[in-house]
Amino acid sequence: METLILVFSAIFGLIFGSFLNVCIYRIPREKSIAWPPSACPKCNAHIKWYDNIPVFSFLWLRGKCRNCKQPISVQYPLVELLTGVLTFLFVWRYGLTPWTFVVLAAVYALVILSVIDLELMIIPDRFSLGLIGLGLAFAWLNPNFEGIWWQKELLSLLGAGVGLFGVLAIALIGTWWFKKEAMGGGDVKLMGGIGALIGWEGVITTLIFASFLGLIYAIFLMIFKGKKGADAIPFGPFLSMGALINLFYLVLPSMLVIEF
Q1: What angle do CA 21, 42, 35 make, to 5 degrees?
Q2: How far is residue 209's CA from residue 248's CA, in Å, rounded to a whole number?
Q3: Neighbours of 162 (CB within 10 A)
């Protein structure tokens, strides 16, 4: 039975990843995510259901639109695969519990905002502020926090505060020191959401992970893409990676804080 649940969760993740692609494309362009049906962004031809099967259709069509034969972005199958894998992992980690559905909502929001940030260098408020609301609303379910429900709510609120105001202070100091924006407002609000979900310790370890991963990415861009050290890079995806690691390993935040 457990194996069937895991298989179903992976399939659900693949299917839901297709919807995340719709959100990624339409939300920053202020288009409805419900209507009209999916269409090729290049020729506007409506996509038939059999050409919209996650991952499989991309492979079957060899990465090209059936109508105009123009290439389909590899982003679509990659987001579907990523969503399927993450859904599988978090269901395997937590089982089918109420907290699992809260975590999956956060995971899907992090995937959407990460890809949008990579493409457009923005993080829509509906996701960053939505994560704050999600964390506070369901703190009473959160295994990251100890105590009775109101104590968990206070810990979630403390995490959101540290994420928001602590990172805002870092951003302001960095802007003053480097004479340019060190961290965008979207990143600051995102850290508020992450703190509401994983607490103030998770804010610290998320920043550590994000800084390390962002540095590797920046070095890669400088070596292979000719970017300069002063060029801005999207930081949201790396904050999201750090948050996902913390959400998966509940004990990691406090363990790392003790070690450091």
Answers
A1: 50
A2: 14
A3: 20
| Side-chain half-sphere exposure of 18, counting CA atoms within 13 A | 19
For the stretch 187-221, pLDDT in tens is 999 999 999 999 999 999 999 999 899 889 888 88
> Crossing angle for the helix pair 125-137 and 185-224, nearest 10 degrees?
120
Using DSSP's 3-state secondary structure scheme, residue 142 falls into coil
Alpha-carbon distance 18 to 33, whole Å?
12
| Joined tokens for residue 156 | 């979630």
Is the CB of residue 132 less than 8 Å from the CB of residue 203? no
What is the value of pTM for the model shown? 0.91
d(CA 197, CA 139): 7
- For residue 195, give both structure tokens: 């703190």
Could you give the CA distance from residue 166 to residue 67 in angstroms, rounded to a whole number? 51
Alpha helices in the chain, H assignment, sequence order: 2-26, 56-60, 75-94, 98-120, 125-137, 149-161, 167-178, 185-224, 236-248, 252-259
Residues with Cβ within 8 Å of residue 60, at least 6 apart in sequence:
53
Give residue-wise pLDDT tens across range 47-92.
888 888 999 999 998 888 888 888 989 999 999 999 999 999 999 9
Task: Classify residue 62 as exposed, middle or buried by CB count within 10 Å of its CB (0-12, 13-18, 19+).
Answer: exposed
